[in-house]
Amino acid sequence: MVTLTINGVVQEVNVPSNEIPMLWVLRDIVGLTGTKYGCGIEVCGACTILVDGSPRKSCQMSVNEGVGRSITTVEGLSPDGVSHPLQKAWVQLQVPQCGYCQSGMLMSACAHYNSGSNGDGIEIDNLCVCGTYQRVKQAIQLAATL
Amino acid sequence: MAIGLMEAAPNAEQMQEGLSLPSGIKPSRRQFLVSATGGFMLQFCLPGLSRFASAAGVPAPTAINSYIQIGTDSRITVLFGGCELGQGAMSGLAQIAAEELMVEWTQVKSALAPLGPITYITGGSSAIRNNYLPLRQAGAAVRMMLIRAASNHWGVSVNQCYANNGTVIDAPTKRVLTYGALALAASKLAPPAKPTLIPDAALRLIGKPLVRLDMADKTNGRAIYGIDVRLPGMVYAAVRHAPMLGGTLASTPTNRNGVTFVNLGTAVAAVAGDTHSAFSALGEGDDDGGGSGGGGFKWTTPPNAAQIASTVFATQAATIMKQGPVLESEVVGSALAAKSTSTTTIDATYSVPYLAHACLEVLNCTVNLTPTFCEIWAPTQVAGWAQAAAAAITGLPLAAVKVNVTYLGGGLGRKLETDCIVQAVQIAKAIKKPVKLTWPRQEDFQRDKYRPMAVSYLRGSLDSSHNIVAWWNRVVTPSISAQKGFITAGAEDGGAVEGAVTLPYAMVNRLVEFGPHPSPVPIGWWRSVGVSYNAFFVESFIDELAHATSQDPYQYRRRLLVNNPRFLAVLDAAAELGGWNTTLANGHARGIAIAETFGTVVAQVVEISGASATGLRVVSVACAVDLGRAINPDSIEAQMQGGIVHGMGAALWGHITFANAAASVQNFNTYRLVKMSDMPTIKVKILPSTNPPSGAGEPGVPPFAPALANAYFRATGIRARSLPLFPAASHMGD
């Protein structure tokens, strides 16, 4: 049993081991499936979450490392799921295609957004097989103005 | 019989006068059901990739697979029998229906049809291409019935009533009834035999860049993909396949540490309380992404394992290229004889490798199997095939198998296969619990149904005016249709030569041949299928002819397209958009290419910089497209952008090789894809057209590789006759 703070909610989570990656704790145990599995080796970024505000690939982060920290997933971007400026910009510019990578993409973008970036020159390392990158860039810039 | 993914879109005549109802809508009350929310549903059949379904031995859809539902609360839902894999089909189809229903976009919801059996196949860029007219007819039928119900209610002529914003209005009195209020009465009427479509001049929604209906849920974690399905009491499974193709599990491992193992023949499944525990029991999740030797399982190696090797495949291809056997796919005139009368003959041999689909969502499937019912949740392009496969494994009748199609985290053709679904049902049968099977990424790469390798010999003979008097193209590649049993091994396969036949260019004599390659590597349909490689071969070779005759490659194509105004217009648009005639910056070069895929013509101008023997930068891509009537221009632009990115990763770095029956790639760290920092600026121009719509999902892919290779030649003088351009640069990440 570990105590985690996920999207502002403090909760006791029954984990099979303290080494289980945060990705699978979120998905299989807590039931927050917005964070995605893509590669398991910290390359694709589909599992990106914020840990104390910094983007972190959760597939190789043990649950232990999350104890005492603030975890934010895509479900925690906004209370209603639509009102974060990044979410508004993403919808306005119709960024997602299949959408599978977009949770991780949004969390990486969120770290830039929170730092006050206007979006210029940002290069996010997340993979998008659908090729939405051009719109992701535009949406980060748009979000900074919303 | 030639079997490809090509199908004719409804033609102009059908558009004008083919107002009979799509099959499945019969003028009978039985066609209307009171929906769960009250109101009524119009049921009908959308064809999807219907001819392909027939080829696979599954009946083409004639049964109901799609619905328009009008609730008594006036909510309008378009339920579609296919799937949403990012192409925007659910929204595009709802947009078409909303047009005929005369409602606003905000009044419409879209969903996947929850009712089986479903024979609809999502593939071949067919969602809009083949469903456009049937859906307009269905929407028009609903509108006419609602108007009829209103006129009956008021006791006035139907001719004085009209639909507007989800209501019916009695023109003289301005009385209004909502669709919701009319739904039950309308459900008792017969649908019109010939629905009247809204005239072109009055179209309000078709052609507008409406915001797709799945956008919000894809920004907040609410979109449920197959991998996200959770059932009460569910356990988690993963598989490891034999480390060599054709290998089998020698003995079933003993259950340990709360993990149950299931012998699937060519793979072992581990079942545990969470995905990570299942992965770990298979030796996955190592820091290096796992290796084929993990898990300590005993495998039986097939006797031909050493022969499953890229070096062997290449030798076989060279032999077939030289000696046959080959089949004639297209014969016009006498290409071989015409060579002797020509003044110049040029030839070249090209090749492309196997490719992975690499959908970001790995294969997965969730099954709840009871003695009398099997319910499946899967990200699948072929719900009907999944249903049939599950029925065969469980012995249940088709009616006792329900397939719930989730969102797909990419499809790209990989989810036209049922291999993972079959395994999940087998596991459910063995362990008798609700189970979700998730493939580790390594399995996704190691057991893909790869885009086939292909080798192409081209010979062009030119007269003194540089006209092509003879064109000979021999394509050696494994046949997807033959491997899947749709056609006899060694038979003609139209799919293998898609993009190599019916070329738009003026060529007096042509011979296109297909040499079936016997490679045992599992293959499948990859975004744009045969055109993905044939366009590279043909458009590179056209460039070679232009260069050999000292002509500008754009102008040379213009000459060859003199009798093909549609292609010419697309080519000109791309050249203009890409600034073909403008001065290039130092170190920059441009290439151009054009190809037709699923009825859609796309031309691209690719501009590169910094080209060397080890890399280059793609600066910009100008893409012009004629896909008939554009339903949602924003979605089309997105599909072109996506197709270009897909083609770009494949052209620069994509390749899978085989040695000792094992694929060379385990994970994304050795299968480089385009990242944001690699992105060119992409500009898309959609040519205006009132022709019936053709495909959008795949046609953006094929022109990229040849346009890039042609630019690379201009920059370096190196003619890239095999892809990828930079196989040694295929690492990504740490």
What is the domain tally of chain A?
Answer: 2
The total count of strands of chain A amounts to 5
- What's the average pLDDT of chain B? 90
Number of continuous helical runs of chain B: 17
Structure annotation, total helices of chain A: 4
Task: State the name of the first-level CATH class of the largest domain in chain B.
Answer: Alpha Beta
Biggest interchain interface, per-side counts: A-B, 62 and 72 residues
CATH architecture grouping of the largest domain in chain B = 2-Layer Sandwich
* Shape type of chain A: globular
Structural class of chain A: alpha+beta
Overall, the morphology of chain B is: globular
State Rg of chain B.
Answer: 27 Å
Report the CATH topology name of the largest domain in chain B.
Answer: Aldehyde Oxidoreductase, domain 4
Q: Give the strand tally of chain B.
A: 28
CATH superfamily of the largest domain in chain B: Aldehyde oxidase/xanthine dehydrogenase, molybdopterin binding domain
Order of helices and strands of chain A: EEHEEEHHH
CA(first)-CA(last) distance of chain A: 41 Å
Domain Aldehyde oxidase/xanthine dehydrogenase first molybdopterin binding (chain B): 333-559
Protein name (chain B): Isoquinoline 1-oxidoreductase beta subunit
Keywords (chain B): Oxidoreductase
InterPro entries (chain B): AldOxase/xan_DH_MoCoBD1 (IPR008274), AldOxase/xan_DH_MoCoBD2 (IPR046867), AldOxase/xan_DH_Mopterin-bd_sf (IPR037165), N-heterocyclic_Hydroxylase (IPR052516), OxRdtase_Mopterin-bd_su_IorB (IPR012368)
